[in-house]
Amino acid sequence: MNIHEYQSKQVLKSFGVNVPNGIPAFTVEEAVEAAKKLDSKVTVVKAQIHAGGRGKAGGVKIAKSLDEVKEYATELLGKVLVTHQTGPEGKKVGRLLIEEGSNIAKEYYLSFVNDRNTAKIVMIGSEEGGMEIEKVAAENPEKIIKEYIDISVGLLPFQATRMAYKMNFKPEVIRKATATMMKLYEAFIGKDCSQVEINPLVVTAEDDVICLDAKLNFDDSGLFRHPDIVELRDKTEEDPKELWAAEEGLNYVNLGGDVACMVNGAGLAMATVDILKYYGGNPANFLDVGGSSTPEKIATAFEIMLDGGQAKGIFVNIFGGINRCDVIAEGIQKAAQIIAEKTGSDGIPVPVVVRLEGTKVEEGRKILTDNPVKNVIMAPTMEGGAEKIVALVKEAEKNA
Ligand code: ADP
Ligand code: MG
């Protein structure tokens, strides 16, 4: 789960991390009120969206007067910001952070993420922080410094010191920098984060070390321990299909393409996405219907995949174990029926290729051959099925 910058800063502040004074605002009036309250020489108006790259996209404005705060707040609220992280469709700005301007002397980069290869947390630092960090990583990888943290002992002070020296902090601020690292690590562990990214971490002209931007991601599996974090969820930032699927207890991730797939088991679901890609398809989603499906759940999965006209074809790839192929087959029939009723049409509007194997496979196939469902065809193998659905979707695109 992601949260906004202003929320991330509130969480970090509760761990004693230094962040600028700031107040969130949902309207232009609130923005001006906030700026009055902050009463700083320079006020920064920052668009709050779940994506970085706002600075370059015009989402971070420096205001020198209340009039300018008003002007920028009016411009940003409701605007669709397109950054290199949002995709071409962009994200609509619904909230602002009104923040005290910092007197930046130098911008650094600091982050913590899980490293799967070493099963450790890696702290990543660079003295070339700010809006060009991706370029630094690509062109000057030696400027990116890593420190691996064993979670059974935590971040040791000597590691933080080593990082601070390698990042070339000047002697006057080394202690402040290492203290910031230790607190950020505490926050990472304390809140079950999967990422804490500070870009930029700045040293000011007054030799303060401040987190000027903050991006916290949380491990969804740990959220039950953090009701305070769950409360920060901004559903308007999340994919409506993913929210719908989550409510129905389906493991669904929208991948943006047009060949949908419905699979049981996460491993098979990933393999299915791969094989669709192999045959030149553009997977619409990852969907693991799990081990305890009912016809109703299958029908809902179809509705989610078809919603908004996203799926141009569906590949059902089931290896029945705890899941039974006859239940899946009934689910497909039910889906056709529900969709027909809801849309006043004659069933599922796109081609569906079904590959069934495993528990009750004969029964499942029989259900679909005895009472054929419009647009549904059977495939004997996973490879054949994947190839077939990709071909059908391409053909439909050509004819469209
Ligand atoms: P993003 O990463 O989405 O571009 P940032 O919060 O990092 O957004 O802001 C972009 C840049 O704007 C920063 O690198 C910094 O130079 C400047 N900036 C952000 N917040 C402040 C602030 N409070 N005071 C002064 N400059 C700021
Ligand atoms: Mg940033």
Please characterize this protein's 3D structure.
This protein folds into three domains: 1-20 and 103-238, D-amino Acid Aminotransferase, Chain A, domain 1 (2-Layer Sandwich), CATH 3.30.470; 21-101, ATP-grasp fold, A domain (Dna Ligase, domain 1, 2-Layer Sandwich); 240-399, Succinyl-CoA synthetase domains (Rossmann fold, 3-Layer(aba) Sandwich), CATH 3.40.50.261. The strands form five sheets. Strands 7, 8, 9, 10, 11 and 12 form a six-stranded antiparallel β-sheet that branches. Strands 1-6-2-3 form a four-stranded antiparallel β-sheet, covered by helices on one side. The protein has a four-stranded parallel β-sheet with strand order 14-16-17-18, sandwiched between helices. The longest helix is centred in the C-terminal third of the chain and has 19 residues, at 325-343. It has 13 helices and 18 strands. 40% of the residues are buried. 38% of the residues lie in helices and 24% in strands. The chain has helices at residues 5-14, 28-38, 66-76, 133-139, 157-166, 174-190, 227-230, 240-247, 266-278, 295-306, 325-343, 361-370, 382-399, and strands at residues 22-25, 43-48, 60-63, 80-81, 91-92, 95-100, 104-115, 120-126, 145-149, 193-204, 209-211, 215-218, 251-254, 259-263, 285-288, 313-320, 352-358, 376-378. By secondary structure, it is an alpha+beta fold. Magnesium ion binds next to loops.
